[in-house]
Amino acid sequence: MKISLLIKIKNQPVFLITYFILFFLPNSSTVSAQSILFDFDSAPVYSPLPISQTVSGITAYFTASAQGYSIQNTTTATVVPVGFTGSFIFPSSIYLSDLYVKYNQPITDFSIKYSTQELACDDAATMRVTAYMSGNFIGTNTKMTLHPGTWPVDTLACSFPVGFDSVVIHYASP
Prior knowledge:
Layout: E1 5-8, E2 14-17, E3 20-24, E4 35-38, E5 51-55, E6 58-64, E7 69-73, E8 87-91, E9 99-115, E10 126-133, E11 136-144, E12 153-173
Antiparallel strand pairs: 1-2, 3-4, 3-9, 5-6, 6-9, 7-8, 9-12, 10-11, 10-12
């Protein structure tokens, strides 16, 4: 399993995002979709956001609110759940920060694997992803892991056939 993103928000949740999978619409006449996987293994370790990643002609531009994030590696991070390897995005502070991802062309589906910092809990934090097209709201989806406990892993996803070109990943509630 490859780790792509780690987000820690205010001493509460830590999100390990193992990959982004998305489908894109290169133009309105194209009917087929393509699955794209973004990871951060090619990003320089310790570099702060913003960064951009390009896979199969799709560019994802990663930015953040507040104190933001930087690229770290499983060998440099203070907390890495069992089974994760590679590089990921790590928080630059303990304060809340949303992750923004903007694409160079419309996509229709987005997913991101995450793990929140929960230590032997019987419930789980709620994550939210909100999609936009040219700054206009398209839709939102939330996810609470089905298997709470210690460092539970789940996938936050959204699918909007009209297409969107950016998402905001947000810790909605504990």
